[in-house]
Amino acid sequence: MTDNPFSSRKRPKSPDLQAELETFRAFLKSRGHRVTREREAIAEAVLLNHGHFDVDELFLHLKVQAGVSKASIYRTIPILIESGLLAAVYLENGHMHYERVYGREHHSHLRCSACGRIFEFSVPELPLIEKEVAEAHNFKSEGHKFEIWGLCSRCRDAG
């Protein structure tokens, strides 16, 4: 499967972390939500993570680091998505996986159905295709997700 996305070697400190957290605080206030220690700890963990993760991985990290409950995480995830900091990217084994999107360029995914590894890629033409398809169907697009699943070279070679 995948490595722990919250390991310290995968979490380079963002020089803009305080500005990013302030953006989240402003979003919370604009929606009438309270700014709490738990919400800030969850937002910080998400902003420092540059991989894909599920709630269980986030909970294990935050339980040790900040004493945050799983219920707080489940209540905060939709707020993080609405704020534009986080996106739900794929469902696997009954668990939704997420990734930080704030400050990152849009990208798509290749997902190995054997080992579960995720490979990110960008295709500059996809936004144009999205726009053209939406216009052709008189549809107002609000974004897109593009994922290709199959077997990575490592799993193909092993089989």
Report on this structure:
The model has no long low-confidence stretch (mean pLDDT 85). 43% of the residues lie in helices and 18% in strands. It folds into two domains: 8-100, Arc Repressor Mutant, subunit A (Orthogonal Bundle), CATH 1.10.10; 108-158, Ferric-uptake regulator, C-terminal dimerisarion domain (Dna Ligase, domain 1). It is globular and about 45 Å long. A hairpin with a 5-residue loop joins strand 4 and strand 5 (118-121). With 159 residues, it is an alpha+beta fold.
Secondary-structure topology with pairs:
Blueprint: H1 17-30, H2 37-48, E1 52-54, H3 55-66, H4 70-83, E2 86-92, E3 95-100, E4 108-112, E5 118-121, H5 126-136, E6 147-150, H6 153-158
Parallel strand pairs: 4-6
Antiparallel strand pairs: 1-3, 2-3, 4-5
Helix pairs in contact: 1-2, 2-3, 2-4
In short:
With 159 residues, the protein is α+β, with helices and mostly antiparallel strands. The protein has helices spanning 17-30, 37-48, 55-66, 70-83, 126-136, 153-158, and strands at 52-54, 86-92, 95-100, 108-112, 118-121, 147-150. The protein has 2 domains: 8-100, Orthogonal Bundle (Arc Repressor Mutant, subunit A); 108-158, Dna Ligase, domain 1 (2-Layer Sandwich), CATH 3.30.1490.190.
